[in-house]
Amino acid sequence: VKSFEIKAAVTAPTKGKEQQVLGMPTLIPVPRSNNINIMLKRFPVSANEIVRAIATGDPNGDLSLERLAVLLQCEPSDEEISIMRHFTGDTSTLTSSERFLFDLANIEHCADKITALVYARQFPELIKEVYAGLSAYDKAITQIQQSSGLHRVLDGVLRVGNFLNQGSRGAAKGITPDS
């Protein structure tokens, strides 16, 4: 019976002083708060530094691609943003996870900024892939241009085409191998 009472007290949607005294979140659900706290503990930098890096869009900061992907999963929902932006109480009473979401919610276009940081981190690798693809095309073009066998085949095809084209139009040549 006591475990049920404890569970009921934890999951009850009351937002009174009991939850604040126990350090329980009042603005977001407990599981969400726990997930955010776990995520924050994995970062080698403080929550304030994470918020600063997102707000400034610092692509060279301490936020790796993997950490940014985790942040995308933990970014505040539209409902949470609305709740945080309408919060008028003392921010010192918020739990660390609520304070983190509060700070993120007050960054304009937070999700877009995190996504932009992800792209900024991916950009060098994407450029390498593009250059590798362009290099492959460049090699293929060079091989085509230097292939004497292909030139002979195309020359023969063009000669046949020009021969067939001579009919009633008076010996009109369509294309020469040099064009």
Automatic annotation (TrEMBL):
Residues 1-179 form the FH2 domain. Gene3D superfamilies: Formin, FH2 domain (1.20.58.2220). InterPro entries: FH2_Formin, FH2_Formin_sf, Formin_Homology. This is FH2 domain-containing protein.
